[in-house]
């Protein structure tokens, strides 16, 4: 899921409501609101966890910050990320393999 940014003027055109992404609404270039889609993650995990998962997925906060935001330890938060198929690594499998090869 991606985070998209819309200006207050864009709100007049309701097409932003049709996508399934977290959105940041701005006014005069400054963020004023965040919209969160009502999806399975939102219903099963609640607002705080859903926001934290989306922010981590979009590399806006670290995994540790996400864990702190949700009052979870890092390991349970990583398990929650895995449940929603959010990668804990921001690299391709080839890049990870190349790094691991250096230690073998």
Write a concise synopsis of the structure shown.
The protein is α+β, with helices and mostly antiparallel strands and 104 residues long. The protein has helices at 40-57, 63-69, 74-83, 93-101; strands at 3-7, 22-27, 30-35.
Average pLDDT confidence is 80
Q: Strand tally, please?
A: 3
Query: Main sheet: which strands, in order across?
Result: 1-2-3
Low-confidence stretches: none
Helix content percent band: 40-55%
Oligomer: single chain
Q: Quick one: biggest sheet? A: 3 strands, mixed
Provide the number of structural domains.
2
SSE run: EEEHHHH
Shape: globular
Strand content: 15-25%
| Contiguous helical run count | 4
N- and C-termini, Cα separation: 35 Å
How large is the radius of gyration?
Answer: 16 Å
- Structural class comes to alpha+beta
What does this structure look like?
With 104 residues, this protein is of the alpha+beta class. The chain folds into two domains: 3-35, no CATH class; 38-104, no CATH class. It is 42% helix and 16% strand. It has four helices and three strands; from the N terminus they run βββαααα. The protein has a three-stranded mixed beta sheet with strand order 1-2-3, with helices on one face. A hairpin with a 2-residue loop joins strand 2 and strand 3 (30-35). Helix 1 (40-57) crosses helix 2 and helix 2 packs across helix 3 (74-83). The longest helix has 18 residues, at 40-57. The protein is globular, with a radius of gyration of 16 Å. The N and C termini lie far apart (35 Å). The model has no long low-confidence stretch (mean pLDDT 80).
């Amino acid at each position: 899921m991606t985070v998209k940014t819309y200006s207050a003027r864009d709100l007049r055109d309701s097409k932003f409501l049709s996508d399934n992404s977290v959105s940041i609404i701005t006014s005069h270039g400054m963020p004023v609101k965040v919209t969160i889609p009502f999806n399975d993650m939102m219903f099963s995990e609640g607002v705080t966890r859903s926001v934290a998962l989306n922010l981590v997925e979009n590399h806006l906060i670290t995994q540790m910050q996400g864990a702190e935001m949700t009052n979870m330890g890092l390991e349970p938060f990583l398990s929650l990320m895995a449940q929603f198929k959010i990668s804990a690594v921001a690299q391709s499998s080839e890049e990870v393999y190349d790094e691991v090869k250096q230690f073998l």
